[in-house]
Amino acid sequence: MILPIVAYGDPVLKKEGTEISKDYPNLNELIENMFETMYNAMGVGLAAPQIGLPIRLFLVDTSPFAEDEDLADGEGDALKDFKRVFINATILEEEGDEWAFNEGCLSIPDVREDVFRQPKITIEYFDENFKKHTESYSGLIARVIQHEYDHIEGVLFTDKLSSFKKRLIKGKLLNISKGKINVDYKMRFPNQKKKR
């Protein structure tokens, strides 16, 4: 089932997510719905806060990036096959010199800005079967994970921009929060009432 994506301005996007257990209600169905929602919106990652749930769950599928001609040798293969569910994730380490990449977000449509992040991460998480992993990633995979991880920490990519950049996009962000934007996927705006 395709779920509405929560738009910029909704308080749930600023909440730190709470950990969940393997007994979380309908977890497998939730994960399936999140993948369907993400693919429908042409995303490469989706975090639970983006569908209105303040929990530590996000998923990533970097295969759309695999077609990019500007990739380092071998990176395309890694991106093509990278599909993961991250539950109760903790980034243990970020290392290397920060690099800029133009990021966007399904909750903030039509806004793209360069964001600086470190290129290598080590992350501890549980997969959808609640098997624990500690893994290291670099490059675009690390970046997508960092972006989605920020969501479960209550941080948006726009929070990482300079004051000047924030002023430049202030009007756009206000319009998004008011629903004054055309998107080709389902969204829920902060001023809309939740449907029961």
UniProtKB/TrEMBL annotation:
Active-site residues (renumbered): E148
Pfam families hit by this protein: Pep_deformylase (PF01327)
Q: What is its EC number?
A: 3.5.1.88
Gene3D superfamilies, per this entry? Peptide deformylase
Q: Which GO terms describe its biological process?
A: translation
Family stated for the protein in its record: Belongs to the polypeptide deformylase family.
Q: What does this protein do?
A: Removes the formyl group from the N-terminal Met of newly synthesized proteins. Requires at least a dipeptide for an efficient rate of reaction. N-terminal L-methionine is a prerequisite for activity but the enzyme has broad specificity at other positions.
From the Swiss-Prot or TrEMBL record, give the protein name: Peptide deformylase
| Organism encoding this protein | Jejuia pallidilutea
